[in-house]
């Protein structure tokens, strides 16, 4: 398995025809550099497809996922916000399944019936 210590979300939409070289160029543009053992997630404008780029210390890996029905829960793009978004392992697992990953903490506790 490829070790991933940190997961980052590139909130702006990405053309899913992009390969690993173009995704790597976007990582450098958005995050400043590609760190070893970090994963970078991208989505298309409709949030129906995502790509994960991972730098393993020797090279890069690229994986993609497509939802046949529905959309991935993706933050709205704000051109004025430059703060990178980081994900926990549990948030990443929920995101790739199409679940509301931003609300995981709220969903752990039932407060009313």
Secondary structure layout:
Blueprint: E1 6-9, H1 20-31, E2 38-43, E3 49-55, E4 60-66, E5 85-87, H2 89-97, H3 104-107
Parallel strand pairs: 1-2
Antiparallel strand pairs: 1-5, 2-3, 3-4
Describe this protein's structure:
The chain has 113 residues and is of the alpha+beta class. It contains 3 helices and 5 strands, in the order E-H-E-E-E-E-H-H. The protein has helices spanning 20-31, 89-97, 104-107, and strands spanning 6-9, 38-43, 49-55, 60-66, 85-87. Strands 4-3-2-1-5 form a 5-stranded mixed sheet. Helix 1 links the parallel strand 1 (6-9) and strand 2. The chain is globular.
Compute the number of strand runs. 5
Classify the secondary structure makeup into a structural class.
alpha+beta
What low-confidence regions span 5 or more consecutive residues with pLDDT below 50? Answer: none
Shape: globular
Distance between the termini: 42 Å
Q: Major sheet: size, sense and barrel closure?
A: 5 strands, mixed
Q: What fraction strand?
A: 15-25%
Number of helices: 3
Task: Return the average pLDDT rounded to an integer.
Answer: 85
Query: In percent, how helical is the residue content?
Result: 10-25%
Strand order of the largest sheet: 4-3-2-1-5
From the alpha-carbon coordinates, what is the Rg to the nearest angstrom?
A: 14 Å
Reading the helices and strands in chain order gives EHEEEEHH
Offer a concise description of the structure.
The protein is α+β, with helices and mostly antiparallel strands and 113 residues long. The chain is 22% helix and 24% strand.
């Amino acid at each position: 398995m490829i070790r991933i210590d940190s997961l980052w979300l590139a909130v702006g939409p990405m053309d899913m025809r992009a390969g690993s070289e173009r995704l790597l160029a976007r990582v450098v543009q958005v995050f400043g550099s590609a760190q070893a053992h970090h994963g970078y997630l991208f989505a298309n404008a409709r949030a129906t497809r995502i790509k994960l780029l991972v730098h393993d210390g020797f090279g890069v890996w690229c994986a993609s996922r497509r939802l046949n029905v529905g959309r991935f829960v993706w933050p709205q793009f704000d051109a004025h916000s430059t703060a990178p978004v980081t994900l926990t392992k549990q948030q990443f697992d929920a995101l790739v399944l199409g679940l509301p990953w931003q609300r995981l903490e709220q969903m752990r506790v039932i407060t009313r019936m």
